[in-house]
Amino acid sequence: LATVQPGRMRLSCSCEDAEPVTPFEFSAGQQDLRVELKRSAKLTVRVLLDADVRKHVRLTGHLAGAGAELESWAQEGDDAHVLEFSSLRAGDYQLQLKASDLTVATIHNLHLVPGGATDPRVDPIDLRGQLHSVQLRLVNAAGTVVDHWGQLRIRDARTGAWMESGYLEHGVVNFGVLGTTLDLVVTGAEFRPIRWQGPPGRVDLRIEEPFAVEIELAGLPADLPAESPLFCASSMIGGSDLLRELGITGDFLNGHDYGVPQKGILHRTCLEAGHYEVQLRWRVENGEDESLFTGKCDLSPQQTRVRLVLPDEVQRRIRELLKKK
Fold first, then answer.
1. pLDDT reading at 255 higher than 80
2. Sheet order of strands, 191-198 included
3. DSSP per-residue string spanning 307-318
4. 3-class DSSP assignment, residue 283
5. Residue 266 and residue 231: Cα distance in Å, rounded?
6. DSSP letters along 60-87, please?
7. Pairwise CA distance, residues 279 & 8, whole Å
8. pLDDT, tens only, 147-181
């Protein structure tokens, strides 16, 4: 460290076969340093999977204990997936094994010491016949995979809770599950929420496309300029019926859809039939909005055009705002 400028410094050092060294401060150029490296513990985990599962499942390991949390990605070996954890302090650990974000095994009280014998619970972890592969595809009416993004949620059979379990990219996702029955929900911005229950394997989910609607705002000035700060925010009251019934909250589908009325008509698409709220707002110069009107209507594939009448005072206020602009 002869080239280090004088002053207060902080040193961190590591060695593959040594315990982590807690970073510490020192005065550069004013003292000699002695760092004692202690031999570390390590953990090798072998996971046995069925051949069809090995091709589709991504395994990760999460090790926590002795003040540390580490993650390891499984490497595919000749006969097993292998996870390696090194530079560990001696102590007790917990290993959580995940397959595509789903916890498939948890090993408690792993006592690790330098040079210690491998715990038989992790050499191997045999998931053959227990972990099953799933290929989930979003398809249209013709059975063709659609290029849509989707959020996958799977119900934990033990707790009943819904877990965010990955994403569909370009309409497809591969993952692994425990057990022989699958309960899942897929949501996306371009199709109606889908729930599916059944056995693992290849699962094709036929999507329902959004339906277009027209909401007439009777009373808007016929000569309303296209660049006026008038806009609408509409949303489904209470959000998705399906997601609410399943107890899935905080979903992006509950958000607002924003649009500008064209010749007195607001055009938008809806993912689900339901009761909708429409707010008419005016954007002012400081970025805040003035709420002018709120109306409610029912929209469905059978009722795609509705009419909301603006009260006289709202129409007068809009004319006043247009004169000031």
1. no
2. 162-168, 150-155, 182-188, 191-198
3. EEEPPHHHHHHH
4. strand
5. 9
6. EEEEEETTEEEEEE-EE-SSSEEEEEEE
7. 60
8. 999 999 999 877 888 988 889 999 999 988 888 89
Which pair of structure tokens corresponds to residue 27? 């005065």
How far is 244 from 193, CA to CA, in rounded Å?
11
CA dihedral over 135, 139, 145, 151, signed as positive or negative? negative
Please state, in angstroms and rounded to a whole number, the distance separating the CA atoms of residues 283 and 290: 6
Q: Which residues have C-beta within 8 Å of that of residue 134, sequence separation ≥ 6?
A: 56, 174, 175, 176, 177, 182, 200, 201, 202, 203
pLDDT exceeding 70 applies to what percent of the chain?
95
Tell me how far the alpha carbon of residue 16 is from its chain's centroid.
Answer: 34
Round the CA-based radius of gyration of the chain to a whole number and report it.
29
Residue 6 has pLDDT above 80, yes or no: no
Residue 177 neighbours by CB under 8 Å, 6+ apart? 99, 102, 131, 132, 134, 154, 200
Q: Which strands make up the sheet holding 59-65, listed edge to edge?
A: 68-73, 59-65, 91-99, 102-112
Higher pLDDT, 65 or 34: 65
Order of strands across the sheet with 230-236? 257-259, 230-236, 274-283, 289-299
- Two tokens at 32? 């000699």
For the record, the structure tokens of 317 come out as 């206020």
Mean pLDDT of the chain: 89
8 Å CB contact between 236 and 274: yes
Nearest Cα residue to 135 out of 199, 193, 48, 75: 199
- Residues 232-247 have pLDDT tens digits of 999 988 888 888 889 8
- Give the predicted TM-score (pTM) of the model: 0.73
**Confidence at residue 237, expressed as pLDDT on a 0 to 100 scale:** 87
State which amino acid sits at residue 74: A
The answer for residues whose C-beta is within 8 angstroms of residue 242's C-beta and 6 or more apart is 185, 193, 195, 272
